[in-house]
Fold this sequence. Notes:
Blueprint: H1 12-16, H2 22-28, H3 62-72, H4 76-83, H5 87-91, H6 104-131, H7 141-144, H8 161-202, H9 206-224, H10 235-245, H11 255-262, E1 269-270, H12 272-277, H13 280-286, H14 296-314, E2 322-323, H15 324-330, H16 334-337, H17 353-411
Antiparallel strand pairs: 1-2
Helix pairs in contact: 3-6
Amino acid sequence: MNIEPSRRMWWSGGHCHRCLVxxxxxxxxxxxxxxxxxxxxxxxxxxxxxxxxxxxxGLHYDRYLREVIDFLEKDQHFREKLHNTDxxxxxxxxxxxxxxxxxxxxxxxxxxxxxxxxxxxxxxIKAKQDLEGGKDMAVDHQALLKQFEYLNHMxxxxxxxxxLDRLIRSATSDLENYDKERHExxxxxxxxxxxxxxxxxxxxxxxxxxxxxxxxEEMKKKHADHPKINHPGSQDQLKEVWEEADGLDPDDFxxxxxxxxxxxxxxxxxxxxxxEALFTKELEKIYDPTNEEDDMVEMEEERLRMRExxxxxxxxxKDRLVSLDEFLVATKKKExxxxxxxxxxxxxxxxxxxxxxxxxxxxxxxxxxLNQKSVDLQKQKEELERQQEQLNAQKLxxxxxxEHMERLKTQKVEPPVEVQVLDSDGGxxxxxxxxxxxxLPPGHLQETPTHS
Length: 452
């Protein structure tokens, strides 16, 4: 069932691959690959591995985070301290104090990275203000930079111990909340999809609604009709990967060899991305991108659920990594050998009817607010048009008054010029009035000058 692109959620790192917390990234960079037991199975021909690509954490400061990590790894002292420091001590910021002992070259580069990041944040703040119509307003960057807790905004020039401590704490906290936020986003996606389906039904007549409901139920039934899904992380599930993906005999299944085969970057750990890759075969049983009834956004949510379940069962120290020891311990548990059945998404609706009701009420309030804003804007438009008409009328009156004054200037009569006419004796006769002068009334004879 398709949803318009604006409603879709796109997942980072190849639709749902998240990275580790900062400390995990640092530790993985130096882990030593574990040798593979080749006595039981014939392994595929070994290929030259390229360095693992940096995976986008999904954090808005991902680039800054990775660049800081890259330069810290270049300092020998820091690397040694890293591998001798307890995980909990790293999270509590004790490792950050070792920044004082890194080389001058690395510190200089870290200073430069921080200045670049502060400059980037200031540009973003200014751009946001411009979009909100405050181009002429003064910007208090120091106050606005407080919201970015992963760096010390009071010192925008140099990278200090506090900056590394803030970066570790922020990355740890943000990544721990990342899955929770994605679950909430998926829930909203599912509720919006259902809301739009219900709204579409309202536009149909009775016969049309009946056909649409029948089609909807048919798609649900087709989607639910799939092979049995193995419990994620169970022996049955991993053996299926061993046989179908690796091309090996299931009777020769060996947990240690399996681990090394699928530790794709050879760092001695299963990270979240490597774990999620193990579930592809299971997900292909349920989802096919060519089928109308299969939603690929739901497939990625299913992948996330599987990965979270395995992490909760196997990752005993909660560092968001599965070590070989943790993996081998898990393979001896009853849950691995005799797992319960796995309930897929269609068996676990993402929202309750109460949540759906609240969601639709929220949408109704938003729609009402938007409609009211639309009415208010229309009134403002009409008022502005009325004021414009008044201004145009006043402008026209003023223009007409100016034109009238100009006409009066040009039509103003000059004083008449008297014309002297000679009489028959050659003397001056009475002046001849202008042609447009009126005759004098009786008894008002003009005086004629006498000759001396």
